[in-house]
């Protein structure tokens, strides 16, 4: 896959792309090194809106989205094949997904990633690149969940308003009262 990318097309929501998405994730063991999580992300491409970026006939990147409320969605998984990274493909795919989400009425997007407080130096290294990507895309940190995934794998939640300011909030979309 090294070399120049040719004609690129974004397709989606795509179906039956599990094999291609798995190949992408397996090319990135430093980000997707937990087998159980990798398999979950692959399975989820079949049940969640998933967009793929093709370079001619080969899928080189994908993004899967999870809806929490009509206005609130999550980047469940985004990945660019190791041989196609640092060419703006993740930015292009995320921008496309945000446009699609805006057309669905969404205005809030979140993503969860490894927190910079991770004690594993291997994962701590990946956070710098991941954090910079999300910051460039307009996400801001909201909260660290020290044990959402596990004590060895703390989670950072980042959020972003997309598609402009909310027009009306749905009555059932507010947080539950304590």
Describe the protein's topology:
Layout: E1 8-11, H1 18-26, H2 35-44, E2 50-55, E3 58-69, E4 72-80, H3 89-103, E5 108-114, H4 121-136, E6 140-150, E7 153-161
Parallel strand pairs: 4-5
Antiparallel strand pairs: 1-2, 2-3, 3-4, 5-7, 6-7
Helix pairs in contact: 1-2
Report on the structure:
The chain has 178 residues and is an alpha+beta fold. The chain has a single domain, classed as Gcn5-related N-acetyltransferase (GNAT) (Aminopeptidase), CATH 3.40.630.30. The protein is 28% helix and 33% strand. It contains 4 helices and 7 strands; from the N terminus they run E-H-H-E-E-E-H-E-H-E-E. It has helices at residues 18-26, 35-44, 89-103, 121-136, and strands spanning 8-11, 50-55, 58-69, 72-80, 108-114, 140-150, 153-161. It has a 7-stranded mixed β-sheet with strand order 1-2-3-4-5-7-6, sandwiched between helices. Strand 4, helix 3 and strand 5 form a beta-alpha-beta unit. The mean pLDDT is 83.
In short:
It is built from four helices and seven strands.
The secondary-structure element order is EHHEEEHEHEE
Q: CATH class, anyone?
A: Alpha Beta
Distance between the termini: 52 Å
Helix content: 25-40%
**How would you sum up the major sheet?**
7 strands, mixed
Structural class: alpha+beta
Based on CA inertia axes, which overall geometry fits?
A: globular
Properties at a glance:
alpha+beta; 4 helices; 7 strands; globular
């Amino acid at each position: 896959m090294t070399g120049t990318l040719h004609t690129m097309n974004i397709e989606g929501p795509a179906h039956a792309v599990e094999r291609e998405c798995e190949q992408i994730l397996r090319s990135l063991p430093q980000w997707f090194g937990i087998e159980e999580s990798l398999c979950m992300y692959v399975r989820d491409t079949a049940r969640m809106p998933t967009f793929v970026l093709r370079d001619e006939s080969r899928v080189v990147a994908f993004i899967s989205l999870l809806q929490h409320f009509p206005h609130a969605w999550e980047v469940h998984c985004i990945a660019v094949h190791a041989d196609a990274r640092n060419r703006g493909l993740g930015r292009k795919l995320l921008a496309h997904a945000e446009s699609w989400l805006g057309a669905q009425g969404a205005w809030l997007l979140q993503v969860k990633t490894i927190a910079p407080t991770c004690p594993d130096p291997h994962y701590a290294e990946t956070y710098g690149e991941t954090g910079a990507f999300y910051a460039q895309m307009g996400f801001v940190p909201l909260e660290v969940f020290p044990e959402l995934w596990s004590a060895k794998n703390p989670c950072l939640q980042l959020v972003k308003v997309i598609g402009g300011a909310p027009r009306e909030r749905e009555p059932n979309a507010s947080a539950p009262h304590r």
